[in-house]
Amino acid sequence: MLSKKQARAFFLGGTLVxxxxxxxxxxxxxxxxxxxxxxxxxxxxxxxxxxxxEANNCMGCHTxxxxxxxxxxxxxxxxxxxxxxxxxxxxxSPIPWEPNGRKMVAYNFSEDEAADLIxxxxxxxxxxxxxxxxxxxxxxxxxxx
Amino acid sequence: MKYKSQKVAYWFxxxxxxxxxxxxxxxxxxxxxxxxxxxxHEFIPFNTAxxxxxxxxxxxxxxxxxxxxxxxxxxxxxxxxxxxxxxxVQLISLALVGVTAIIGYHFNWWEGRKFLEIPRQLDYLVVxxxxxxxxxxxxxxxxxxxxxxxxxxxxxGLLFAALLYIPGMxxxxxxxxxxxxxxxxxxxxxxxxxxxxxxxxxxxxxIKLTGVDREVIEKWLxxxxxxxxxxxxxxxxxxxxxxxxxxxxxxVGGIFSALEPLAFLAMALFAVNMYRKGEKKHPNKIALxxxxxSAIVSFIGxxxxxxxxxxxxxNLYTHGTLVTAMHGHLAFWGAYAMIVLAIISxxxxxxxxxxxYDGARGxxxxxxxxxxxxxxxxxxxxxxxxxxYLERKLKMDFMEVxxxxxxxxxxxIICASLxxxxxxxxxxxxxxxxxxxxxALEIKE
Lengths: 145, 445
Description:
Largest interface: A-B, 68 and 75 residues
Largest sheet of chain B: none
CATH superfamily of the largest domain in chain A: Cytochrome c-like domain
Oligomer: heterodimer
CATH class of the largest domain in chain A: Mainly Alpha
Largest sheet of chain A: 2 strands, antiparallel
Strand content of chain B: under 5%
Radius of gyration of chain A: 21 Å
Number of helices of chain A: 7
Helix content of chain A: 40-55%
Strand content of chain A: under 5%
Order of helices and strands of chain A: HHEEHHHHH
Number of domains of chain A: 2
Number of helices of chain B: 13
Order of helices and strands of chain B: HHHHHHHHHHHHH
CATH topology of the largest domain in chain B: Four Helix Bundle (Hemerythrin (Met), subunit A)
Number of domains of chain B: 3
Strand order of the largest sheet of chain A: 1-2
Number of strands of chain B: 0
Shape of chain B: globular
């Protein structure tokens, strides 16, 4: 029968080994030739867009890369589906945008801020999401056909 | 109660209860918004309610864990807490930081990073607070007469939880890196080190309630936390499938997260077996209900329902849908909320000297809240599956789908009302117990 000492060795050993593998895989994933995000394309404008995204907790309603709150639409590939004109109108709206009765906070963004957020979405749209992009992207495209 | 300083635990538990009530209120605000009743939109829009709801959960659970540690560590180490005064300072500062963050969320002061919305400035205060807490616990343990495995596992869990908060504070330019390291905090907390905390509390409760030999219980505790880390660390990969990192995570995350239910299964089997084996019949049946309930419901909520959408083939469609909310609710309830309610139920009679654990109210609280939460989980599950099917298979527009599934949120609100009734009953009991007193020192547990 397993002794307490063996049980402790199993805990410590298992933890150490899996943790080292985890660190190794993390380093591997972030090595340059494994980049799927087009990291070099992150401009200052994209970063400003990301800052706005965070400062207003957009993830508190929307999802992006499938992460967020499921109250408002996924915004990965939103430019594909809606086009930049629509997105800009929503962002700059002085009154709550209300499609099908669900209200969005009226952020009343400036022209520049809207452009920053659109640059951010544009960068997001080019990320290789291991197939998830095909699940969220063709929604509107298929409909148009 | 064996040590005077254990009384400080009571106030952490009281803070927990207060924040739990607030968490539920914000849950209702979101539930009603989802069926179109969003009259509060101007003051409390959905993203505010959501950040408040999830952050309150984290803070009340942490407050509960801290209370548990202040109760358990003196008893395990056989030594009074090194400083009660500093423990109260820590309590008050925890409450202040928490309340400041929550108020800030109503004025657009936050970082829109799911679960880690607390602004960086406050993050530093959180760090100071947690360091103070850890200092008190570790010093007590270090100076204590004995160092038990239960106390070590609990302390290790709390220490790692603090360390893992750091990756969430590193700023990134890339949304992908941001997300990747955010999960180091969130996943490695809830599917890693928090399970050490849960395991530590569970083990303490089982030793007290069943009378099974400490050596046996603690041996299995090692096996369980071993399984947790063995599956949980690499299981983090299930958050990395579709966020823009290497495909290797599909394989690693798939395999190891599929093993995660094993740790929870082991925990449930362990708790039930120890109960069966135990010859001691502790009169505090309510604490036993919550203890065994936590082990079993966490297996269903975290283990089985997690498994339901953890394989990459399934997750491709369920990623970013209400299916996650289904799993999240029962998992947090079973694994963490119930274990906190268990330790409170066990500690209160000992802290206050009043043995109210035979009443019908306690049992009603247990069953009503559990049935309510299971109903909520089913409502989220049905809504989630329908959403996946309509939106991702039939490619309907997001809001059209939301209107189709709004009926499930009516069901959700009804079940949430039942759940709330259970929690209210629990809190009525909490209040009836009254304040902790030194007189309770003389009473045999």
